[in-house]
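Run log // design_07
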């Protein structure tokens, strides 16, 4: 095989391996139950997204009657959402009960 052919094959293999690698799903972000803080209009909410992509509102953040830095609604929403996620991931959060 000529040097040019070897270099061409190496280039094609390198490009294809990059394409295959970048098209793999990131399971840590795309699967499983996920809690997140999201803004709707001027309000912040913790949402739960299930494995089948259903989205549920868990909590609305409205009060600013907390000491800093949690007197800012966004900070509190992000902190509580991450605590929900951590508790879910380590198994201490078994169920979420909803009362209408």
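design_07 sequence
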């Amino acid at each position: 095989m000529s040097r040019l052919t070897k270099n061409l094959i190496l280039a094609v293999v390198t490009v294809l391996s990059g394409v295959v690698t970048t098209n793999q799903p990131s399971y840590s972000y795309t699967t499983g139950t996920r809690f997140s803080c999201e803004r709707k209009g001027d309000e912040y909410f913790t949402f739960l997204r299930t494995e089948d992509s259903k989205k549920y509102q868990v909590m609305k953040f409205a009060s600013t009657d907390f000491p800093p830095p949690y007197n800012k609604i966004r900070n509190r929403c992000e902190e509580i959402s991450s605590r929900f996620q951590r508790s879910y991931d380590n198994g201490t959060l078994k169920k979420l009960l909803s009362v209408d």
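The longest strand covers residues 34-40.
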